[in-house]
Amino acid sequence: MKDPKAEPSADRSRREFIRTGLQVAGGVALPSLLTSPAFAQNQPPVGTWPAGVAGDSVFIGISVPRTGTYALQGEDELKGYQLAIEHINEGHALIKAISPKTTRGVLGKQLKYGVADSAAKPNDAVQAQQRFISENKAIMITGGTSSAVAVALNKLAQREKVLFVCGISGSNDTTGKDCVRYGVRQNFYGETAANAIGPALLKAYGKNKKAAFMTPDYTYGHTVTKSVNDYLTKNGGWTMVTNQVSPLGAPDYSSYLTNIANSGAEFLINVNWGHDAVLSTQQAKNFGLLPKMKLVIPYQIPFLAREVGAAVTEGVFAATDFWWTMEDKYPLAKMFVETFEKKYGYKPEWGAENAYMEFALWAEAVEHAGTFYPPDVIKSYESPRKLNSMVGEVSWRAQDHQLVRPVVIVRGKAPSAMRNKEDFWEVVEVVPGAGLMQAPTAFGCNLGGYT
């Protein structure tokens, strides 16, 4: 018989940790498993289930960009996730308004989590989440900010059979051609943004205009640009006179802006995101393109107005997921803004709201299913019902796992009109979501199997 003292100390510690964990699981969590619908049906293991729910807590893997061009937006998104976890674990009134069956934790289990820096790189995000799945038995993973990351995590989730609730992702592909059964997304995206902001632009500026686009060279940029251009061309006779495509993290936009200056464009439609949007907008101003050309932000970037200044965003139309002054209309928005500001010291941007809602709706879906068993949770998402949110009533579309939700049109305020240092945008319209969405099969969605 092998002498246990001969084992390396790290191996002994790991063995003792596993043994302790099994003892805890046997003493605390087993009764809840025995009474759950999935266990009663004697379902075979799927993904990290049932190992991931064997204790009195469940683990969530979070990957957001904490470095690189999307870092500022990633940190805001992360704060939304963290506040949601805190609220779920304590049974906060805001969570209960969205997920009425939640008391403390999800199905009585506290949420624990790990955070990894994706740096907006798909490979980094996938490697981190694979570790969370393998080592921590993550029952759910989340991440985004970059749609390339979201698409990669979609594929990981489907392969590993672990639910992926998508963070920020504006690409049509995320719930289009790259959709998966194990992925869901609650925020707005290129097509809905285009169909919401398009009418506002035509009403304000009329038809037959010339537009220059600035597009980041990946799935988010290409699909948003296509949707916006398609709408304006078809419905307003607008012309894309140039489309300047740049790599993620470009430090200098002078060559692209020179081409735009020589294009004859009347509008600069900037699809860049994160710090790329800030740099390209600042440089457009320095080149003298702004305010000579009218700036349009078809997919609003959190913190853009703060970074470039209200004088630059004054009068600019943007489509967004949420803006904090919606607290004046929606009670749940007011609760969120107040609790977020109290904890973090600033008004939440839409990335934080999006992250919070994604976790709140996941809690609702699990509670509605009455189990963490992944196929049953997915079917819970697919079961038609109306849900509460910070922007009114919403629902999931079963065919592509996209939330049907409104898109918010905002216009930049003049510095003199700002009520406080964070009052950058005026909400012009909250556009109902159903009429903004393409047919479920239009973008090639094929969800795949449950097991």
From TrEMBL:
Keywords: Signal
SUPFAM superfamilies in UniProt: Periplasmic binding protein-like I
Keyword Lipid biosynthesis: no
Gene3D superfamilies: 3.40.50.2300
InterPro entries: BCAA_transport, Leu-bd, Peripla_BP_I, TAT_signal
Keyword Signal (UniProt): yes
One Pfam family cited in the UniProt record for this chain: Peripla_BP_6
Residue span, Leucine-binding protein domain: 58-413
Family, as annotated: Belongs to the leucine-binding protein family.
Protein name per Swiss-Prot or TrEMBL: Substrate-binding protein
Species in which this protein is naturally found: Caenimonas terrae
